[in-house]
TrEMBL record:
A Pfam family that the UniProt record links to this protein: FYVE_2
Oligomeric form and interacting partners: Interacts with RAB3B, RAB3C, RAB3D, RAB8A, RAB27A and RAB27B. Interacts with RAB3A; this interaction recruits RPH3A to synaptic vesicules. Interacts (via C2B domain) with SNAP25. Interacts with deubiquitinating enzyme CAND1; this interaction results in the deubiquitination of RPH3A. Interacts with GRIN2A and DLG4; this ternary complex regulates NMDA receptor composition at postsynaptic membranes. Interacts with SNCA.
GO cellular component: a single term: postsynaptic membrane
One annotated GO biological process: spontaneous neurotransmitter secretion
PANTHER family linked to this entry: RABPHILIN, ISOFORM A (PTHR45729), RABPHILIN-3A (PTHR45729:SF3)
All copies of domain RabBD, residue ranges: 38-155
Record-annotated FYVE-type domain positions: 86-143
Native species: Athene cunicularia (Burrowing owl)
SUPFAM superfamilies: C2 domain (Calcium/lipid-binding domain, CaLB), FYVE/PHD zinc finger
Any one GO MF annotation of this record: zinc ion binding
Protein name, as recorded: Rabphilin-3A
Transmembrane residue ranges: none
Length: 501
């Protein structure tokens, strides 16, 4: 077999890169066999230091917000721990109920090994084939660890950020080359934008269009980018919620579908507000909130933006690409009006909370020469006041052509259950001469249906020659334009009314 050649013959000296270098630590390599030269010290400029300091400041703000979020989760957990009533042996650790044959059914918490009743326990699954039980405290503890990222860091994560770098004072101010915490850029500088007051929570792209002829506001939610991660997997389940301010909360809220496991959702979904008038466009603000849907708990707020509708031009679509902001929830006023179950109202910071809105109704009028009478269409209502304890109403509409024409003067729509934005699409006919119509007034009232007791009045309006403004104009156009259907929105008011029958 022969002898093995000497090591030097296998790897000649003319190949220095192949020689091991015992002086180098593991993971390092020599550069061409040449000795290391000390790197010339390069001093950072003040401009570069300012950029670094702004990045550190942004990181500090984000860390502060994250610690606040984790702090809220921890305080909720501590409140649960302080409120325990049992010993976890013979009595349920949480509610204190007697356990055993004479008491409630008993299970053992997988984490704390305490006894708990099935009402205070949470059945869950793990990697094991069979289900396990947790007490609500340990279940909440797991949720805190998931949401805080502590499951990964083996403890609550805490960043150690570098100290800001000193900047020489003898130099004049230099133009910033990177945006500061309150100057974060949007994706497209040509689009209208508003800078966030704190660290960025993500950007939202959407468009708004006020269709003046149809009295509708179209909001197209296109996409979001770089949303704050809300789940333990570093992602979120985002959806967008719209709210017109000021206004009754439930009647004004619209929302998109939820997209799962993404920080860059693409909705391409259009939400429409009906019954938006020029007056609304001058005084209302659209609040756009991005939230994270949680199947097992409360949905979490990510960020929001607000657009004053008076910035929009009629029939011109306006595109927005805006960084989301974290805004303190608006305070809620008490129940307004004397009506039972009136919805809570949200108010603008700079507006009073005493604006009572009953809603609007879309009515069509047409005098038919062929049928020899007036055709009244009740199309829909929007943003009705809530009259029931569940925050909704069961609305229907009454018509009354005055002075009284007997039973033929009154009509009713069908009742729509549990809604503040009902669609009726019903038409009613009054057999009346055109010449007599000018002497009449049409009383329109919207009611909330209640079983076994009197119905609640929501609001109404009266059209006719004695009316004013849009109500008079609508009636006059109907008389002037025979055989032409004319639709108009009318604001409901809390006027004097008779009891519904």
């Amino acid at each position: 077999r022969g002898k093995t050649p000497p090591f030097g013959e296998m790897y000649p000296k003319k190949h220095p890169l192949l020689w091991p270098s015992p002086q180098l630590p593991a993971g390092w390599a020599a550069r061409g066999g040449q000795p290391d030269r000390p790197r010339k010290s390069e001093e950072l400029t003040d401009e570069e230091k300012e950029i670094i300091n702004r990045v550190i400041a942004r990181a500090e703000k984000m860390e502060e917000m994250e610690q606040e979020r984790i702090g809220r989760l921890m305080s909720r957990l501590e409140d649960m721990r302080r409120s325990v009533l049992g010993d976890g042996v013979n009595r349920c650790i949480l509610c204190g109920e007697q356990l055993g044959p004479r008491g409630s059914a008993c299970v053992v918490c997988e984490d704390c090994k305490k006894n708990v009743c099935t009402k205070c326990g949470v059945e869950t699954t793990n990697s094991r084939p069979h289900a396990i039980w947790l007490c609500k405290i340990c279940s909440e503890q797991r949720e805190v660890w998931k949401r805080s990222g502590a499951w990964f860091f083996k403890g609550l994560p805490k960043q150690v950020l570098p100290q800001p770098m000193p900047v020489s004072k003898n130099k004049g101010p230099q133009p910033p080359s990177e945006p500061g915490p309150s100057e974060l850029p949007t994706q497209d500088q040509k689009l209208p934008s508003r800078a966030p007051t704190r660290a960025t929570l993500g950007a939202l792209e959407f468009s708004l269009l006020y269709d003046q002829e149809n009295s509708s506001l179209h909001c197209t939610l296109i996409k979001a980018k770089g949303l704050k991660p809300m789940d333990s997997n570093g992602l979120a389940d985002p959806y967008v919620k719209l709210h017109l301010l000021p206004g009754a909360s439930k009647s004004n809220k619209l929302r998109t579908k939820t997209l799962r496991n993404t920080r860059n959702p693409v909705w391409n979904e259009t939400l429409v507000y009906h019954g938006i008038t020029d007056e609304d466009m001058q005084r209302k603000t659209l609040r756009i909130s991005v939230c994270d849907e949680d199947k097992f708990g409360h949905n979490e707020f990510i960020g929001e933006t607000r657009v004053s509708l008076k910035k929009l031009k009629a029939n011109q679509k306006k595109n927005f690409n805006i960084c989301l902001e974290r805004v303190i929830p608006m305070k809620r006023a008490g129940t307004t009006g004397s009506s039972r179950g009136m919805a809570l109202y949200e108010e603008e910071v700079d507006r009073g909370g005493d604006i009572e809105e009953r809603g609007k109704i879309l009515v069509s009028l047409m005098y038919s020469t062929q049928q020899g009478g007036l055709i009244v269409g009740i199309v829909r209502c929007v943003h009705l006041a809530a009259m029931d304890a569940n925050g909704y109403s069961d609305p229907f509409v009454k018509l009354w052509l005055k002075p009284d024409m007997g039973k033929k003067a009154k009509h009713k729509t069908q009742i729509k259950k549990k809604t503040l934005n009902p669609e009726f699409n019903e038409e009613f006919f009054y057999d009346i001469k055109h010449s007599d119509l000018a002497k009449k007034s049409l009383d329109i009232s919207v009611w909330d249906y209640d079983i076994g007791k009197s119905n609640d009045y929501i609001g109404g309006c009266q059209l006719g020659i004695t009316a004013k403004g849009e109500r008079l104009k609508h009636w006059y156009e109907c008389l002037k334009n025979k055989d032409k259907k004319i639709e108009r929105w009318h604001t409901l008011q809390n006027e004097n009314h008779v009891a519904s029958d």
